[in-house]
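Limitations

Structures in this collection are predictions, not experimental determinations, and the ligand pose is part of the prediction. Treat each record accordingly. The example that follows, with thiamine diphosphate as the small molecule, is included so readers can see exactly what is and is not provided: the inputs are given verbatim, and the output is the predicted complex.
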Amino acid sequence: MPLETPLLDTVNSPADLRGMSDGELARLADELRAEVISVVSETGGHLGSSLGVVELSVAIHAVFNTPVDKLIWDVGHQCYPHKILTARRARMRSLRQGGGLSGFTKRSESEFDPFGAAHSSTSISAALGFTIGRDMGMPTGDAIAVIGDGAITAGMAYEAMNAAGDLGKRLFVILNDNDMSIAPPVGALNKYLNGLSAHAPFAALRGMAEGFEAALPGPLRDGARRARALVTGTPGGGTLFEELGFTYIGPIDGHNMPELLATLRAAKTRATGPVLIHAVTVKGKGYGPAESAADKYHGVAKFDVISGTQAKSKSNAPAYTSVFGCALTDEAARDGRIVAVTAAMPSGTGLDMMAARFPARVFDVGIAEQHGVTFAAGMAASGLKPFVAIYSTFLQRGYDQIVHDVALQGLPVRFAIDRAGLVGADGATHAGAFDVGYLANLPGFVVMAAGDEAELVHMVATAAAYDGGPISFRYPRGEGSGVQMPERGEVLEIGRGRVLREGSDVALLCFGAHLPECLLAAETLAAQGVSVTVADARFAKPLDTALIGQLARHHAAVITVEQGAGGGFGAQVLQYLANSGGLDHGLRLRTLTLPDRFIEQASPAAMYADAGLTVADIADAVHKVLPQHGVAKRA
Ligand SMILES: Cc1ncc(C[n+]2csc(CCOP(=O)(O)OP(=O)(O)O)c2C)c(N)n1
Ligand SMILES: CC(=O)[C@@H](O)[C@H](O)COP(=O)(O)O
Ligand SMILES: [Mg+2]
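Predicted complex:
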């Protein structure tokens, strides 16, 4: 049934909201919510988070003068209502697809997206940057950061508030507190926020106390201040945010349009310094199946609007993530020293499996990758065996901790790096492109990649057994290739690869989950009379130099293949061969990696096609180094 959206149909840009009455804005929010549900039912995406900010999106655009005022959504996964209001409604059904709208905010997409995002907790820093720009004469108005209760647990948000509170410049932070991250939120700060929102009359009470206090003579005022501290439960009588230099307003009902509009208007009129508005919202608001789901429909596949049933595709092979979760739980059952760390993604990383069995040995640190890595280093130093399970893209945030706290001290922290390679709909921001490059250059690191899901089980066992220093293994999003699974993981010899197919013309040396593509390419080439060896390197560090030497000696060309950026495995092989004289006798070496550009969202297969890493691309690379292209077969 087509949606009835008479008000929304009149909105071509946020300027249209500014002529609407408060009643119309409330009705517009209802229409917008229906539109978001309808869009995401066709595209999939971050539904629950977007439904939670429908009223906020309308109110902010109605009160502030976007795009001159800069509205910055933290993470950006909740930006669908904002996109609909900012002249992108007609393209919404292309969301997260190849050539379509991004699922996050993106500067190149719209002037209403002043700052791109997808990794969390950057919004206050960016907003503060715009604020400085405004004060230094740049053509920019107020800056408004909207940050969730999950995102505000990350250290970066406090670094930003520390600076903003000190600078004292006019800046708006809206805390969108739905008491939910991807999983239920964790940590003392979460408890603190819950305490604040549980005291709805808190602001009024404090306001009264403050007014009363100001009217008292000096000595009495101190007593009143102490009394206020008792009432509010905070030592200085203010909230944490006030102690940091912000004016705190709230908690307010983030779905009550009159309350939202009145609060934003008052803040906009009166603010002279940084203001934090605490809006309490409901993740999945207004859509029953989302509100009642344990994950609040954080990220969904396409779904049926009436029933809420998601169209999850049938799998032919187990997903890498669950293979990891299962294998680690098995290892943990055998070894009581194994502990695990996730940064707010227990189900995304599969650590929920181990947590179900060994809850006291799995630590969800919240969105705090830096802390997670150093925390694991501390546990390793104490004699425990920590596994840090973090997506490749988010591990980037913990890099100095990896270098300084783990590698330099040679601590045996095990890094389980999920979402390695191109991930699909989340696009370039979530691609696991760089981990091999940034880990394999660290002295003493063991760096592995799983060629298939059985190999992942072996790598978990290898990492569990290895106490010699830091060790990592990477594996992609999605299903494995359907290989026979081992009963139990075998401990691999460190630095030893394997040959899967013997040939004589060209060797394909694969690092990671492009192994099936290499085998398929070898098969295609065999049918064309080209004899190809396929080897699985398993290790980017230490390299299997014996295997590489043998491939180099017995083939006219070696082609490395990996699901990662340049500077990774291929670069390690190239450096080794160049420095050991392996290239001195005419060996042709090619490195197939992701190209030197960010790959836009599409299906993973389409992204790999864009990257030039399909089976046909691999076969083509082999043809290009064959004798008819001028490469003589070496003795
Ligand atoms: C640095 C980083 N780590 C992890 C994530 C994955 N992630 C995306 S959204 C999210 C939860 C955010 O919760 P919150 O800020 O409360 O937003 P909500 O979805 O509840 O509106 C997480 C953990 C990320 N985007 N960036
Ligand atoms: C917004 C965000 O960063 C996460 O929700 C991410 O989209 C999850 O990705 P997966 O679906 O691969 O777990
Ligand atoms: Mg939240």
